[in-house]
Design brief:
Number of helices: 2
Structural class: alpha+beta
Number of strands: 5
Order of helices and strands: EEHEHEE
Bound molecules: FE2/S2 (inorganic) cluster
Shape: globular
Radius of gyration: 12 Å
Amino acid sequence: MPRVTYISHDGKQTVLDVPVGTSVMQAAVLNGIDGIVAECGGSCMCATCHVFVQEDQLPKTPEMELGEDAMLDGTAVPRRPNSRLSCQLVMTPAMEGLVVTMPETQT
Ligand code: FES
């Protein structure tokens, strides 16, 4: 099962085994990871599941759809080039070892 490392804004690291087909957001919520709110439950409608993907891993993440791109313009902490919505990061085997950092706030 691919592993994902979640790094909170204060530097706390949590490593989870995330089943293929489960989103980075879903795994975080199910495991009580602080820093991902996910108000809309994964419908790409809230932007409270904002994460920063480790830059060199961006090529192995799914391509960004227009809806995600638009929502990232409304995040509480301004988007960066490595910003993604974690509900849109559905795990594939290629994403093994993914590292995401949560922003200071989601709201
Ligand atoms: S959970 Fe709402 S946009 Fe990701």
